[in-house]
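Milestone M4 deliverable, item 7.
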Amino acid sequence: MKAAILFVFLAANVIPVPSTLISQSGSSLTTSLDQGDKVNWKAEWGMTEIRVDGVRAVRFTETGSGRTSAYSQEVRWSAQSTWMAGDGFRPLETEKRITTTDGKLLLLERKAFDHKKGTMRLERTRPGQSPEVNSLDVPGDVLAVEGLAGILRFANVPKSRSLSAHVVTNKPEVYKVTFEWRTEESVKTPGGEFHCYKVEMVPQLGVLNVFRPFIQKTYFWFTVAVPHHWIRYEGSENGPGTPGVVMVLSQQRR
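Output delivered:
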């Protein structure tokens, strides 16, 4: 029995926090799902354990450049997300800044989670427009899309059962989802070849589930070997309604 295996079920549906969080960094590249091997953008990312008000937390950072469906020109961005790492991983705050290649601001987006009140506040700023502010109620098991792949490394998705949670998108909207084990397979990337778990994020749409076959499917691949590195993502570029992309590890650093 592999006691340290990634997919161990906990009835509380909380993503458990390991005793040690290893600081890591790496790079990835992204292509369109239906346009072959043409690279849309490249990114550098990092994961670091920090303290927030004396409590363990983890911070994910990303810098990237390239073309996304939201803009007609090449853009650059920097992003970070902070997750509390106490009795389980919970998103605390995120920030994303998108600029032109010469540094002109196109978008500044911030999210702040208040888990005591069960709310999330989203602020967006665009040049020449009034700031956009949205607030919505979020359940206790809410996950943010920012940093999600890093957090899912520690998720509870065994072969015979699934992890239920809620994910808040950038619209913003909250979706009930399950993370379901699909298979084990070999995955080749510019960073190497890896034996992986394949996990699908399945939206629970209630009466609209009849339309689920027409919705872009979302998959994550993590190494079977501990500490279950993220290797590949396949799904929508930036939430429902955006083009499908494939994001893969191009280099892993420690």
